[in-house]
Amino acid sequence: MVSKSKKPHFGHESMHTHSQSVEAAVVEQSKATAESILSSKGHDVISVRPTDTIHKVTEVMKEHGIGSVLVKDQNGHMVGILTERDIVRGFADEPDDTFDETAADLMTKEVITATPDTPLLDLLRSMSEGRFRHIPVLDGEHIAGLISIGDVVKFRLRELEYEALKLKQMIVG
């Protein structure tokens, strides 16, 4: 009886097939981290103060074409994150008063963060399980950047395009 858990041995340990090369490429891809994304996207983060009105926050978001801002105190420390979803909930709860409320009133205070070394797949898992689309990246106390689900998708698409190109090159010769 042949065990399915053992790989056949052909005596040519150093020979690799195309499928083994593809497998190696997939393993290499899994080493992508938050820093990999920030390196291509940039480290800039748009932030507001806890006392800024929602009206001001929406103007900032519109001006920069973004869906979230970090909320920082006077010392530059992150105290929360405010997203389009938080603002929509505010309007659902208090339609007439939301623009006059402050970032501190609507922001998410318990922020899930990543580090520069957080693997890409862990970022996706956190966002998917937590049902949020933005994750701040902290390097110790320093805010290294902010990653959106769109940033992850764009990064992964570039990787897939590169992998497809490499596969074509292997096939062609």
TrEMBL record:
Residues 1-28 are annotated as: Disordered. Residues 38-98, 107-163 form the CBS domain. Keywords: CBS domain. InterPro entries: CBS_dom, CBS_dom_sf, CBSX3_CBS_dom, Diverse_CBS-Domain. This is CBS domain-containing protein. It comes from Aliiruegeria lutimaris.
